[in-house]
């Protein structure tokens, strides 16, 4: 299986300065997003950041992105509404909108203990979202991020995990497949696998996210598998 940078084994990266990628989900009291739309939008936001010219080469965010990817790949999802959301929009970053209206803003990485005050005061807890109705079956000709059916994670935690999975897939893709994914608007689906499907996926060699265990679940838990068609073995 693919070795995950999110695993908890001892690693020289632990001795490097630690950065975190902030993700802010818009969570208005009267009109919260659907859970699946938020999970998919979070993953697409991470891909959008990874692909942005400002995050690579000589771009203005490239140094922070490099430092973040050289250490543990941490992501933290916080929620905002009203004036808090408007303030988050004034900071450097990219807002991505989901197919059903979910909004997620991804910001360049910041030091683990150096969050901007506008983001540091936002709440992490409370991102409990539901789907009004079950999502339809995933289109298997497009990328699917499969959730572990045995884990119970909050929406915020799961948003970070789907971001991890999308990132693992992105790292493994050749340039042509990255370009095709970009041209599709980073189309993807997030679905919960059946127990049987999950067992098959674990044997498939596809990228697997293994959580570091800082919050909610045990260290080393397999949370999401990135099923991109270009990465499937014949």
Automatic annotation (TrEMBL):
Pfam families: PTH2. The keyword Nucleotidyltransferase does not apply. Its EC number is 3.1.1.29. The keyword Ligase does not apply. Keywords: Hydrolase. It catalyses: an N-acyl-L-alpha-aminoacyl-tRNA + H2O = an N-acyl-L-amino acid + a tRNA + H(+). It is an enzyme of class 3 (hydrolase). GO terms for molecular function: peptidyl-tRNA hydrolase activity. It comes from the Bacteria. InterPro entries: Pep_tRNA_hydro_II_dom_sf, PTH2. Belongs to the PTH2 family. PANTHER family: PEPTIDYL-TRNA HYDROLASE 2, PEPTIDYL-TRNA HYDROLASE 2, MITOCHONDRIAL. This is peptidyl-tRNA hydrolase.
């Amino acid at each position: 299986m693919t070795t995950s940078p999110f695993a908890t084994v001892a690693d020289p990266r632990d001795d490097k300065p630690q950065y975190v990628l902030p993700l802010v989900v818009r969570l208005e009291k009267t009109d919260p997003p659907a859970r699946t739309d938020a999970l998919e939008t979070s993953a697409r936001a991470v891909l959008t950041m990874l692909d942005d010219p400002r995050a690579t080469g000589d771009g203005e965010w490239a140094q922070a992105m490099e430092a973040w990817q050289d250490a543990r790949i941490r992501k933290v999802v916080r929620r905002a509404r009203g004036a808090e959301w408007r303030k988050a929009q004034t900071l450097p970053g990219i807002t991505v909108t989901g197919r059903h209206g979910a909004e997620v803003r991804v910001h360049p990485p910041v030091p683990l203990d150096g969050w901007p005050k506008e983001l540091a005061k936002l709440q992490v807890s409370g991102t409990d979202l539901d789907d009004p109705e079950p999502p339809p079956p995933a289109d298997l000709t497009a990328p699917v991020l499969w959730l572990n059916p045995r884990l119970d994670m909050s929406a915020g935690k799961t948003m970070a995990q789907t971001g991890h999975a999308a990132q693992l897939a992105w790292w493994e893709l050749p340039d042509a497949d990255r370009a095709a994914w970009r041209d599709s608007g980073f189309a993807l689906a997030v679905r919960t696998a059946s127990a049987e499907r999950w067992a098959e996926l674990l044997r498939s060699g596809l990228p697997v996210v293994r959580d570091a265990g800082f919050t909610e679940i045990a260290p080393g838990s397999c949370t999401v598998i990135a099923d991109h068609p270009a990465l499937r073995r014949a």
